[in-house]
Specification:
9 helices; alpha/beta; seven-stranded mixed β-sheet; 12 strands; 31% helix
Amino acid sequence: MKKLLRKFVSKFSKYSHIYENAFDLVKTINFYEINLVIDIGASTGEYAKMLRRFGYDKYIFSVEPVSKSFKILNENCSSDKKWSSKQYIISKQNKNKIKINVSKDFDNSSILNSTELHLKNHKGAEFFYSEEIDSKSLDQLLNDDVNIQKNMMLKIDTQGTESDILESGNASLDKFKLIQIELSIQKLYSNQKLWTEVIQFMKERRFDVWSIIPGYKDKNKSQLYQIDAIFYKNKS
């Protein structure tokens, strides 16, 4: 019955690939004894709820910039004593506020512009308004808002600005045992860095790939556009 349910969710849910691989993801989290997951680009909290559903019962700190999504996120975590949230854009830009373009489906909102390829394959990615949101670097976030733990995991899903966030955390990345990043194989947002560049950045900081989860693709021709890569700190 559970297998049938997962197949059903896989067919219709935009989070199907993460859901299908959730058991393995939580196994990795447990192996590294992660006791705090920092979820940047949390939307309304689907990732955190998935972790809870598959057995993760430690702390979660979610960060989401879009006001409407953050309102739902805040409601979702309000009854969970180990789950908190903040509304920020995380960036290396030295600005108090940054403009974010809000997409029709909210989940594809970005401080970058969508490419024609993205708009062609996903109508919900079209922007229909923008708002200015308080901004912090990853280093500032950890200094100001996070109760630092020994075994932390960072998850980044921010529609093309993942490398910007990583670069804003020069003093912070070494604090994480695991880092999960959404990576684009094809350019879906202007000026974004593609997967090979981000992997090289991580390797230079002694993070290697632990596992890869297939993500968004063109279903008509089965071309993969995005993946989630989970990196671990290589001590050797």
